[in-house]
Design brief:
Layout: E1 5-11, H1 18-29, E2 38-45, H2 51-61, E3 65-70, H3 75-85, E4 90-93, H4 101-110, E5 116-120, E6 127-128, H5 132-149, E7 160-163, H6 164-173, H7 181-191, E8 196-200, E9 202-203, H8 213-234
Parallel strand pairs: 1-2, 1-4, 2-3, 5-8, 6-9
Antiparallel strand pairs: 4-7, 5-7
Helix pairs in contact: 1-2
């Protein structure tokens, strides 16, 4: 039976937490009303540790798990590929170190009314327990999106539920493939007039950032300029 929901997780060098994370997630998914309606897509991208072997072992145990592979590390590329290959009508995006069954259930109930449901770390009712520096950078980044792009929300990066038919054309139009990919997708969704809503989530750091926050700033600035230029040229 074709799944109605695709849960998408990009995975890269996750051997330390992947087996426990996937087992816990799959057990929780199988307790929801959608237990017979989902697939779990693991988009492995360029891992150099045992991530792929762990994912394959989980896929042998759980028929709902499907593995997609990319040859090089690319968070945005993994999301792009995963959304394009999803068989469900709705894609729910999780990260290996950040998933929330409560968000999954609330977001699916809202997808009849909205094209994009965003799990916000900043909106009223959210609990962001990450280190102070990361919280400050997130707030500064969101303020930059508000000023530079007119973004009306409070967050763009993290948990999401997307109606596939509505967002696939926007995915194809995105110009970035780094960590900022999903921010570009949300900016394009707002620009296209899609129906967006935010719901609060609780988040805490389970591992240090893969790339130092200071090192990420120049790449983020370059990507933001590329997004701004692309959107400007499309006017």
């Amino acid at each position: 039976m074709t799944p109605r929901i695709s849960v998408l997780i990009p995975i890269y060098n996750e051997e330390a937490l992947l087996a426990a994370t996937l087992t816990a997630l799959l057990e929780q998914l199988d307790k929801t009303p959608w237990r017979s309606e989902y697939e779990l897509i693991l988009c492995e991208n360029g891992s150099t540790d045992g991530t792929l072997a762990i994912a394959q072992a989980v896929a042998r145990q759980w028929q709902t798990v499907r593995i997609e592979r990319l040859p090089t590390p690319s968070y945005g590329g993994a999301l792009r590929h995963g959304i394009a290959s999803a068989r469900g009508q709705v894609v729910v995006i999780f990260n290996a170190d950040f998933w929330d069954i409560d968000f999954f259930q609330r977001a699916l109930r809202l997808c009849d009314q909205f094209d994009v449901v965003i799990g916000s770390k900043q909106t009223r009712g959210a609990h962001d327990r990450r280190p102070r520096l990361r919280r400050l950078i997130t707030r500064a980044f969101n303020e930059l999106l508000r000023i530079g792009f007119g973004y009306a929300g409070t967050d763009t990066h993290g948990l999401k539920a997307l109606r596939v038919a509505a967002v696939k054309p926007l995915v194809a139009a995105c110009r970035t493939n780094n960590e900022i990919f999903d921010s570009e997708l949300i900016l394009r969704a707002q620009r296209a007039g899609l129906r967006l809503c935010e719901i609060p989530v609780a988040v805490e750091e389970k591992r240090a950032a893969r790339i130092g926050l200071i090192r990420r700033i120049p790449r983020t600035v370059i990507d933001l300029f590329a997004i701004w230029w692309s959107l400007r040229s499309e006017d």
